[in-house]
Amino acid sequence: MTNKKLVTVIGLLPVLMVLGNSMLIPILPSIEKGLHIDERWSGWILSSFTIPAAVCIPFIGFLSDRLGRDRLIKYSLWIILAGSSLCAVSVLLKNPAFLFMGGRGLQGVGAAGTAPLAIALAGDLFNGDERSEVLGTLEVFNGMGKVFAPIIGAGLTIFLSWNNAFWIFPLLCLVILLGLKKTLKPADEEKNSQGVREYARDLASVMKSKWLLLLPLYTIGGIGLFLLFGILFFLSYHIENTFHIDGFFKGFSFMFPLGAMTISSIWSGKRIKTDEERGWYYIKWGLGMMTVPLGILIIFHSLSSLLFCITVCFGGLGFILPVLNTFITGSVNEGERGFVVSMYGTARFLGVALGPIAFSSWMENEMGMYIVTFLFSVVNILLYMLTAHRGKVSIQKLSRG
C-alpha cells in the first residue's frame, strides 16, 4: 500500500466519528446524572449526535462532489471542534442539558463530513486492489475505534469528570487537520467542473440504473449498525444495573464483540480485493453469523450467553462492512461518488441513531427485544437473497473508475 501516512490520516476520520457515540456508551449513566435527565431521555445523548449527521450527510456528499472532499472535511473538523467544546463546558450552567444537546448536534453536523467523505476520498485516490485494501483499512480503523472508545471513555472518567472526555475531540481534530495539510496535496483531488444540471442528470441516471443494487446494500449496512449500537446500549445498562459492573471493567467487556468485528474486518478487507464472488460469499456468511446467535439469545440470555452471541454476531458484521464499502464505492464513477457514498453513510448513521432509541424502549421486555432483533437479521438475509441473484455490480471493471 502506497502513502501509508495519508491512509492513516484518512483512517482517523472514521475513528473520530466512532468516538462520537462509542466512547460515551459506558459512561451514559454518569452523563445522565450530570445532565439531570432520566433513562427515557438518555438515548438522545447518542441520537442528538447521529440524527443531525444522518440529515446532513447527503448535502455534504453533494457539496464534496462540487467543491472537493478535502475542503468539506476541513470545514467539518472545525464544526466538530466547536460542538465538542460546548459539550465540555455545558456543566458550568445550572441546566446544562440544552447546551450539551446543542453541542452534540454540532458534533453530528461535523461528523457528517468525516467517515462518509473518507470512504469517497479513498475511492478517488486509489484504484483496483489497492482501493479495496484501503477501504478495508478504513473499516479496521472504524472497528478499532469501536474497540478502544468504550475503554477510553470509561478510563478517563476514573480520573476526570465525564465532561472532560469531550476534549479528546478537539485534540483529534487538530491532529487530522495537520495530517491532511502535510499528506494531501491539492493535486491529489480535483473539483468537479460539471454544471449543476449535468451533474444532477448523471446522478439521476446512476441512481435509476443501480437502485436495485444500492438500496438493499444501504439497508443491510444500516440494519447491521442499528443492531450493533442498540445491543451495545442495552449491554451498557444491563451490566451496570443487573450485575453492578461499572467503570473500566464495563468498558473492557465491550472489547469482545467489537474486537471480533475488527479482526474479521481486517481479514475481509485484505482478501476481497476485486473478487466480486468472494465479496458476496463474505456477505452471506456474515449474515449467517449474525442471525444464528441472535436466534439463540431468544432461548438463552444470561450475561455469558449474551457476550458470546454478540461477539459471534459482530464478527459476522465485520465480514460484511468492508464488502459493502467496496461494492458501493466501486459501483459509480468519481463524479457521483460523493453523493452515492454519502447516502450509504446516511443509512449507517440512521442505524446508529435509531438503535439506542429503539432498544431503550424494547429492553423493558427482554424476550420481545431478542425476538425483534432476530427478525431484523432475517430481513437482512432476505435483502441479500433479493440482491445477490441480480446483475451484481462489476467490481473489477468499475473499481478503476
Automatic annotation (TrEMBL):
It comes from the Bacteria. Its main location: membrane. One of its GO terms (cellular component) is plasma membrane. It is found in: Cell membrane. Residues 6-392 form the Major facilitator superfamily (MFS) profile domain. GO terms for molecular function: transmembrane transporter activity. Keywords: Cell membrane, Membrane, Transmembrane, Transmembrane helix, Transport. It is a multi-pass membrane protein. The chain crosses the membrane at residues 7-29, 41-63, 75-93, 166-184, 211-235, 247-267, 279-299, 305-327, 339-362, 368-387. InterPro entries: MFS, MFS_dom, MFS_Efflux_Transporters, MFS_trans_sf. PROSITE patterns: MFS. This is Major facilitator superfamily (MFS) profile domain-containing protein. It comes from Rossellomorea aquimaris. The lineage of its organism: Bacteria, Bacillati, Bacillota, Bacilli, Bacillales.
